[in-house]
Each structure stands twice: as structure tokens, then as C-alpha cells.
Amino acid sequence: MAGLKLPNINSVLLAGRLTRDPELRYTPAGSAVCTFPLAINRWYKDATGQRQEDVCYVNIVTWREIAENCSKNLHKSSAVLIEGKLENRRWETESGQKKSTVEIRAERVQFLDQTAPSIRAPSQKNLQTTEATEYTEK
Length: 138
Prior knowledge:
Layout: E1 12-18, E2 23-26, E3 32-45, E4 51-63, H1 64-73, E5 79-92, E6 98-111, E7 133-136
Parallel strand pairs: 4-6
Antiparallel strand pairs: 1-3, 1-5, 2-3, 3-4, 5-6, 6-7
């Protein structure tokens, strides 16, 4: 097993709803960063045949133009499709305690609500507009 070479794959595709409004901030260098929590529901039948719901909550991070578009157009309960990758972020608190979290860095966000504006990122201008609006990281 020591010679086994794993492919370098880190890809996530999620559909869900925001559990609160997005938060937009800017780095000291001026890059926009927008974060929001996403709820992903899964339905299944238990051993007795009863329908059960399981909800998974993940934090989404967007950068630059995608961040600004998400901040302007999304709100609590907005439906989105996220394409991105898992990222592990580590930091140390002021008291010296080490912390870490796993979050999703969105490379593409598609707005699924029918009320989503018909706006595309600059690289997407020549594409035909559909009900869903999407933004792709350059």
C-alpha cells in the first residue's frame, strides 16, 4: 500500500439554503471576502420506514467579485448551488489557544431562486441568461 498514489482531487458540489445573511468584509489588501453558512438537507427512511431528515451545516467562503455579488444578491434562506473545494484554516487566539475549521471555498456560486437577478460575472457576459444566476471565480 505504500506505493499507492492517490489522485489530487479536492472538489465539492453542494446545494442548500443560507441560514443567515452573508457577511462581507475586506482584507487589508482590499480583497472582498464574503462568508455565509449553508444548510444541506438529506431525507431518508429509517428502519421503521419513517421518513427522516438530516441537516448538515457548512461555512462557505467567497472571494473578490463573487464575494461582492453574493453580498448584494443573497440573503437568509436564499437557495444556491456551490462548486468549490475544502479548505482547512488554522489560527491562534489571543490567549494562545490553537483553533482550526474546515470550510468550503466557493469557486462558483449559482443563485437558484427565481427572483435572482439576471447578472453574470464579466467572464460570463456572452452566455445566455437562465433563471439561475451564477458567478465563477477567475
